[in-house]
Input
Amino acid sequence: MKTLIVYASKNGASAEACEMLRERLSSFSEVDVCDVHSSLPSPDGYDVLVVGGSIRMNKLSRALKKYISANAKTISSMPSAAFICCGLTDDFDDYVTTEIPRSAKFSLGVHCFGGQLKPERAKGLDKPIIFMMRQSILTQDPDKSDGERRELPELFPDTIYALAEKIKQTRRV
Output
């Protein structure tokens, strides 16, 4: 079995999620992992395709969306999945609706892999923006909000591993 994972990552959350997925899949599948900004591999010749990336400023990477659109017919005809890494997981359904090209049908679903706010990975203006977002979460006053304290965003290993199990079930006998 051969699996292709194509992702877009700016500050490392999607790359880390892909590595976790690759590790799980490698016990039963040959796995190629490609950054859409470095190479544009064809999904032809693969048994399963996984594509995904991080939401930044409420948008998925333009290069990743272009890749999905260009390969929509192939994606729709093979076992495939998409994932989104996002710090604001409450908005996941909106991101799926607005950011995943509708021309591609993912038979294994679209999954939320969580997200991260790690300013040490960021560059340029991203660094202070991420730092401010973290500080806003860490210093929130439960008495002045809905009473429930939010935690810093993190990746969801259980969701990543569940997708690996779903992919495992697609193996041809």
